[in-house]
Amino acid sequence: MADYVVGSGTGGSLIIRDLGGTVQAIVRNGNGSTWANGVPWSLYLNDGASGSTSGTFNIAGGQDLVVWQGNITTNMKVTFNMGSTGTSGLGGPTTVVAQINRATVPAPPTMLGIDQLVHQSFRVRFSGNSDGGSPITGWEIGFGLDPNNVQYITGSGGTTTINTQFAPGSTVYAWARGANAVGYSGWSARASGLLLPGVKVRVSGVYKDAIPYVKLNGVWVPSVPYVKKAGAWGLTKL
């Protein structure tokens, strides 16, 4: 529970009370006298853009009177006004303002895909969506060889190159998520891509992955080995 309080007169207060879902507008009369002259009040949500209401009240001595109650589920500014009572004890006009925070975890990011695949690295791109009402504190990419489960997690800034020890020719999968002060979003939709195939060479009697490169215009770049099978050229499979 959180109370937002502004004093009024010599013994009164206006209170906006946040109960975590329900919000109340309360007039507190700390004096022994009763006011029964129909004191006006009004309440505005987001300066009236999300609703407003008004009325009058009578209040007994020593009473906390709830003049309005509502359920607020999103971030919202609440403004509670009391008109003049014509007395020094309860005073007025008086206004109390509260910024109600209903932050949640962020929405899952939008996955833009996997690209720049070479033999053992690839790039993941995604874009964020709603921050849930609390600033994003970080992004993560989950990835691996299992299409149904995140096996590894790395930090990200929206576009991230991931270097792996996965075998060339493997199908890789990736997801993205964000975090704020409340917690983590769900994972984004899954993206997938195929690492460039390679070949194997025998070293001391053991076959190991060989990563082929070719020199193009003076620069060494990853290459893809092809073999001819049944008269047709196709990618070499490890």
Distance between the termini: 62 Å
Number of strands: 21
Neighbour order of strands in the largest sheet: 1-2-3-6
Helix content: under 10%
Identify the overall geometry: rod-shaped
The helix count comes to 0
Radius of gyration: 32 Å
Q: What is the class of the largest domain in the CATH system?
A: Mainly Beta
Oligomer classification: single chain
Overall tally of domains = 3
| CATH architecture heading of the largest domain | Sandwich
Structural class: mainly beta
What fraction strand? over 45%
* Overall pLDDT metric: 90
Q: Can you tell me the residue ranges where pLDDT is under 50 for at least 5 consecutive residues? A: none
Report the sheet with the most strands, covering strand number, pairing sense and barrel closure: 4 strands, antiparallel
CATH superfamily of the largest domain: Immunoglobulins
Give an account of the 3D structure:
By secondary structure, this protein is mainly beta. The chain is built from no helices and 21 strands. It has a four-stranded antiparallel β-sheet, with no helix packed on it. The relative contact order is 0.13. Strand 18 (213-216) and strand 19 (219-222) form a beta hairpin. It folds into three domains: 2-100, Immunoglobulins (Immunoglobulin-like); 110-194, Immunoglobulin-like, CATH 2.60.40.10; 199-235, no CATH class. The protein starts with a strand and ends with a strand. The radius of gyration is 32 Å and the shape is rod-shaped.
